[in-house]
Amino acid sequence: MPSRLRPAWRVTHVAVARPSTLATPTTQAALDDSLRSGRSLLGVQIDTGTGSLLFGAFDAGFARGVLGRGLLDGTFRFASGDLAPMRATVRQFGWGVSARSAEAVVVPLQTDGALAPLRLPLCEATVVIQGYNSTTQCIGAALPSGGRFDECTSAWRPTSATRVEGYITITAARSVRVPGTDGSLCDLLAGTDCGRPLDDWPRGTDAFGCGEAAWRFEAAFAATPARVD
Fold first, then answer.
1. DSSP letter string over 122-173?
2. Which of 70, 116, 145, 225 has its CA 20 to 30 A from that of 205?
3. Which has the minimum average pLDDT: 37-41, 89-93, 151-155, 207-211?
């Protein structure tokens, strides 16, 4: 169970809405599988003492527990270096909280079951948590599998109000290589070689963020209580 002073959660489901390239059924299936298996580890924590929220990748070298795959009773820690989590001041509103980071954060998402995670560079990242269940302490809800909750097979239903948002700029996207290809994240999002004129891109940018043209990133998520060092 999460600490009362520093409640934390492990992300169990991410439903990408934008950009459309990352919102396909194939990508969603790969995301769900990686989060259930623990190959992708994302977390969120609220520090009530400092009034801050952390969101980002958990270190893969966490201590697994003994229940199921060891994810429900494992102990996690946030990653460091270029995968360090965003840290931002929490703002309360009604039944929820939000936090917006002034620093860019890299969010690794497993978009292909056979490849390394795709690192999404988000600037002006915002995390909103609304719909927290005070009884189960979950964010969102798990659907029964075979009549009961199963760590490895139950599907999760997020609430659209609990989400992570941000911008992927052209500059940042050009610097990220897509695992298993010779192309960049910019090439993937644009649907062509980003070296071509912008007017020739099949999928152009759809927003302006962080001072330049960008793709808007929006994803709802669900999460289960977790222990975080």
1. EEEEEEEEE-B-TTT--BSEEPPBTTB--TTT--EE--TTSEEEEEEEHHHH
2. 116
3. 151-155
| Beta bridge pairs of residue 32 | none
State the Cα–Cα distance between residues 173 and 190, nearest whole angstrom. Answer: 10
Whether residue 58 contacts residue 76, with contact meaning beta carbons closer than 8 Å, is answered with yes
- Whole-model pTM? 0.90
| Helix segments in 62-131, DSSP class H | none
Q: Give bridge partners of residue 75 from the DSSP assignment.
A: 63, 227
**pLDDT per position as a tens digit, 74-92:** 899 999 999 999 999 999 8
Whole-angstrom Cα Rg for the chain: 17
User: CA triplet 82, 43, 81: central angle to 5 degrees?
Assistant: 15
| Closest by Cα among 205, 172, 177, 209 to 191 | 205
Bridge pairing between strands 75-76 and 227-228 = parallel
The CA-atom distances, in angstroms, between 101 and each of 19, 51, 91, 149, 220 are 20, 13, 12, 34, 18
